[in-house]
Amino acid sequence: MSEQKIAQPLADISKMSVPTLPSTAPELPKQNGFWSSNPVFSYLNDVYTNISQHRQSLGLTNPGTVENLTKEVNRDVFLNQHFFQGLRADLNKSFSFDPAFQTSHAFSIGGDLPPYAFSALYARENMFAQGNIDNQFSVSGKVNYGWDEHNVSKVTLQIAHGQPTMCQLEQDYNANDFSINFKTLNPLYLSGAFTGVAIGSLLQSLTKKFAVGVEATFSRQNSSLPPDSAISYFARYNAGDWIATAQVQGQGALVGTFWRKVSENVQAGLETQIAAGMRPVSTPFGAQLEPVVEGITTLGAKYEYRTAVFRGQVDTTGKTSVFLEKKIMPMLSVMFAGEIDHFKQSSKVGAGLQVETAGNEQIFLMQNGMVDANGNPIPGAAM
Question: Which residues, if any, are the signal sequence (predicted)?
Answer without folding.
Answer: none
